[in-house]
Specification:
Layout (H helix, E strand, L loop, with lengths): L1 H84 L6 H13 L4 E8 L3 E4 L15 H8 L5 E2 L3 E2 L6 E11 L2 E11 L1 H8 L7 E5 L5 E3 L24 H5 L5 E4 L5 E8 L6 E7 L1 H28 L4 H19 L14 H32 L15 H141 L4 H120 L5
Antiparallel strand pairs: 1-2, 1-6, 3-5, 4-5, 5-6, 7-8, 7-11, 9-10, 10-11
Length: 664
């Protein structure tokens, strides 16, 4: 009876253990399945996020490097344009020397040229354009003048001689404050091509396309830009690249041209507008998924096998260490890796489980410690650190990822340092150029001010000359009036002398009559004397009268002779006076003609001096405008000097920042 009860009790105990074992086994299976699924989902999510982040970092890094490289070229063409527009380079020889020196500063620049609206082109190396070359019809020339404040960047093209990809940068230049030409610079894209080609691996790559979708550099040579062919993102790979060129920082899974599915993301260069597209494989994610799933399946089947082998008869013994392990695992799940699994090893499974968990925790401590040391060194700006230790399994990928990150950071900071040095060099050159331009502008301003002052003095002197010329013209007019009055008086004098001459003729006739009368009187006196003599005494008295009459006749004859002589002398004097008056009239007539000509010449001089005064005043006004322009140019040059100094300070600060990192 007792034996039967013992057997029943034993059977009941065995049934309860089996029931508990089955319940525990089912619960554990479900828990393991849930944990496996959660771990797979979390691991997959982390792998996808890491790949996406890595892809975004890659496309951002390459876009930044392209922008940095192109910005230095943009700054260079702007500096060249500023030098041409400064007004200090006016001779063809000086401009030729300037563009030649600019080419020598950068081995990626193949040519620099200064062109003008007059269809004049001055190119480095002394190249002379053919007669049918019209520079103003070139696309880069029109593009630069359409937006003179910006730098025109042409679409890339293939150099037929070298087969390399080239671009043209152009910037408008000014003369007297107006757009008068364009400076251009041809450069090779070898550095950018090499930069893109470094990204090519067996499964990932980065390629470059223009804003309109033309592919410039691609690992598939058939897609890359060449002399023979041109491809676009809309055409190749069934148009699957199109979305990356149209959307920025948008990740998408697509079928690659090599086959298989990959992650793709695109970004736009702010300087050039080009599209940078990065492609990463899904292989790492799939491998990681496979490893996680395999590990979970292994754990699951090991756990199930252990349960099947040890559940019967040992479930009650296992409950206690399992409860301890479960509680400690909760602590481990909370991040406490100091827990030690030292439960009673009442079974081989418990022993293996505790040993495995302890080994896992030790491995986690090692991995976390190594990663923490690396991250701490990076946070302390030590990029020369390396990830030490023997990583196993899936942790190898973490180590490789950290190594790639450190390598990329070293390369990135090295390139930033080189870029900072380049920017610093260009800033120093720009500062020297702008200082020279400012000094030249100040000298020009001083010269213009001196010329303006001279023009003001010349204007005052011209005004005085005009006043003197007007006074001379007035004096000549008064002199002409006096000459005309004198001419009229001389004419009246000539007429008076003609009248005197006529009077002298009449007087001469009258004197002749007197002489005739005197002769007749004398004859009568002689006859009277003869008759008185005949009369004797009676005629004496008559003889006396006859004698007196004879004397009177002689005196009259003598007086008429004297008068006649005086009249002849007066006629001679009057004749000479008439000749003198005629000569004086002729001279006065010539003087009047000369005075009229002088007045005409003086009028022309006055008009010419007035025109000269107006021209001088116009020149003076224009010189004031030129002085203002030169003064503005000097101020702009000083502002550019300050900007270049700030740029140099920024470059120095950037270089100091990068120098603070310890690189490999």
């Amino acid at each position: 009876m007792r034996e039967t009860e013992g057997k029943n009790t034993k059977a009941a105990g065995e049934g309860l253990s089996s029931h508990i074992g089955r319940m525990f086994s089912g619960t554990l299976r479900r828990t393991l399945i849930f944990v496996c699924l959660v771990s797979v989902v979390i691991a997959g999510f982390l792998a996808v996020m890491y790949t996406l982040k890595d892809n975004q970092s890659a496309v951002t890094e390459y876009t930044g490097e392209i922008d940095c490289a192109m910005q230095s070229k943009v700054s260079m063409i702007e500096a060249i344009a500023a030098g041409i527009s400064s007004g200090t380079l006016t001779e063809r020889e000086s401009i030729q020397s300037y563009v030649d020196s600019m080419v020598e500063t950068d081995d990626q620049v193949s040519a620099v040229y200064s062109c003008y609206d007059e269809n004049v082109t001055i190119m480095s190396g002394g190249w002379q354009p053919p007669e049918d070359f019209i520079v103003t019809e070139r696309e880069w020339y029109k593009g630069a003048q359409a937006e003179p404040a910006s730098v025109y960047i042409s679409a890339p093209y293939v150099d037929e001689q070298s087969g390399g990809i080239c671009i043209t940068l152009a910037k408008a230049t000014y003369r007297d404050g107006k757009v008068a030409g364009v400076v251009g610079m041809d450069m090779y894209m070898d550095n950018l091509v090499s930069l893109i080609e470094k990204s090519y691996t067996s499964s990932s790559y980065v390629f470059l396309a223009t804003a309109d979708g033309t592919i410039l550099v691609h690992p598939n040579d058939k897609y890359s830009l060449s002399v023979e062919s041109t491809s676009t993102v809309q055409e190749v790979n069934s148009g699957r690249y199109k979305d990356f060129a149209e959307k920025n920082m948008s990740t998408k899974v697509f079928a690659d041209y090599k086959g298989g599915f990959k992650f793709g993301i695109g970004n736009t260069s702010e300087v050039t507008g080009w599209k940078v597209i990065s492609v990463k494989p899904l292989t790492s994610i799939l491998i990681f998924f496979g490893l996680i799933i395999g590990l979970n399946l292994l754990i699951y089947f090991v756990a199930v096998a252990a349960i099947k082998r040890n559940i019967n008869g040992r479930i009650s013994v296992l409950f206690k260490p399992l409860e301890s392990i479960s509680s400690k695992m909760t602590e481990v799940a909370g991040g406490d890796l100091s827990v030690v699994f030292d439960e009673e090893k009442n079974s081989m499974e418990i022993e293996k489980l505790t040993d495995s968990i302890n080994e896992m925790i030790a491995g986690l401590k090692f991995y976390i410690g190594s990663i923490s040391d690396t991250v701490t060194a990076v946070s302390n700006k030590n990029l020369a650190v390396s990830v030490d230790g023997d990583f196993k399994g899936s942790y190898v990928q973490i180590k490789e990822a950290l190594e790639r990150i450190l390598s990329d950071l070293n390369e990135t900071f090295r390139q930033i340092n080189e870029g900072a040095e380049s920017v610093l060099g260009f800033a120093d050159k720009l500062e020297k150029t702008t200082e020279y331009v400012a000094q030249s502008a100040s000298a020009q301003n001083e010269s213009v001010v001196n010329v303006s002052e001279d023009m003001v003095r010349l204007t005052g002197q011209t005004r005085k000359i005009t006043e003197h010329a007007v006074n001379v013209r007035s004096a000549i007019e008064v002199t002409n009036e006096h000459l005309e009055a004198s001419n009229r008086e001389m004419a009246a004098l000539s007429n008076a002398m003609d009248s005197i001459d006529k009077c002298y003729s009449e007087i001469a006739d009258f004197v002749g009559t007197i002489q005739n009368i005197a002769a007749q009187t004398n004859l009568l006196s002689l006859n009277a004397s003869i008759e008185a003599a005949r009369a004797g005494e009676a005629g004496k008295g008559f003889a006396v009268v006859a004698g007196e009459i004879s004397t009177l006749a002689s005196s009259s004859a003598q007086a008429s002779d004297n008068i006649n002589k005086l009249i002849e002398a007066s006629k001679t004097a009057v004749s000479n006076g008439k000749e003198l008056v005629s000569a004086a009239c002729a001279m006065m007539e010539e003087g009047m003609n000369d005075s009229a000509k002088s007045k005409q010449n003086v009028d022309e001089i006055v008009e010419f001096v007035k025109n000269q005064q107006k021209a001088i005043e116009d020149i003076n006004a224009e010189l004031k405008e030129v002085a203002e322009i030169v003064e503005n140019n000097a101020a702009s040059a000083q502002e550019n000097t300050a900007i270049s100094q700030q740029l140099g300070d920024c470059a120095r600060s950037l270089k100091q920042t990068t120098d603070s990192f310890i690189l490999r």
